[in-house]
Design goal:
The chain is mainly alpha-helical. The chain has a single domain, classed as lambda repressor-like DNA-binding domains (434 Repressor (Amino-terminal Domain), Orthogonal Bundle). It contains 7 helices and no strands. α1 packs across α3. It is globular and about 40 Å long.
Length: about 150
């Protein structure tokens, strides 16, 4: 993730953004941002957070990841090991509907957490947004006033 760290720090310098401001704008924890900027991160943030980070620093996800040249970096990139497969996968994302994309994001987040656990990196579970029609864990237990005896 060295290319990501170099691009992120270069964009922060260019935009004159502090870590505190980046944290405020992206909603990512400062430690996560510091790991990304130093090249010490072993995993990426959840997809929605990563996309917010890209938006704030003004780069496309592929640019920040180093898969395509970023504007103004003048950096010659070595092609990634699986460039053809990544490009084919990204081209096929256009064919997925919203539910399939949400499932793909959940799957990638789960794989990311499992990979971090295998590497021994403690990782907080990513918060999941409740989808339409999905029952959440909160609010499922009801207490009725009739169940309570008067004091």
């Amino acid at each position: 993730m060295d290319i990501l760290a170099r691009r992120l720090t270069a964009r922060l310098d260019h935009l004159r953004l502090s870590m505190a401001e980046l944290e405020r704008r992206t909603g990512l924890h400062r430690q996560t941002l510091k790991k990304l900027a130093s090249g010490k991160a072993t995993t990426l943030p959840p997809a929605a957070s990563f996309l917010r980070l890209c938006e704030v620093v003004g780069l496309q996800p592929l640019e920040l990841l180093g898969l395509t040249p970023a504007p103004g970096d003048g950096e010659a990139l070595a092609p990634p090991a699986h460039e053809a497969e990544v490009r084919a996968l990204l081209a096929n994302l256009d064919r997925l509907d919203e539910a399939q994309l949400a499932l793909a994001v959940d799957l990638l987040d789960t794989l990311n957490r499992h990979a971090a656990a295998l590497e021994g990196v403690p990782k907080r579970p990513a918060p999941r947004e409740r989808r339409k029609g999905e029952a959440g864990a909160r609010g499922t237990r009801r207490t009725r006033s009739a169940d309570r005896s008067p004091a």
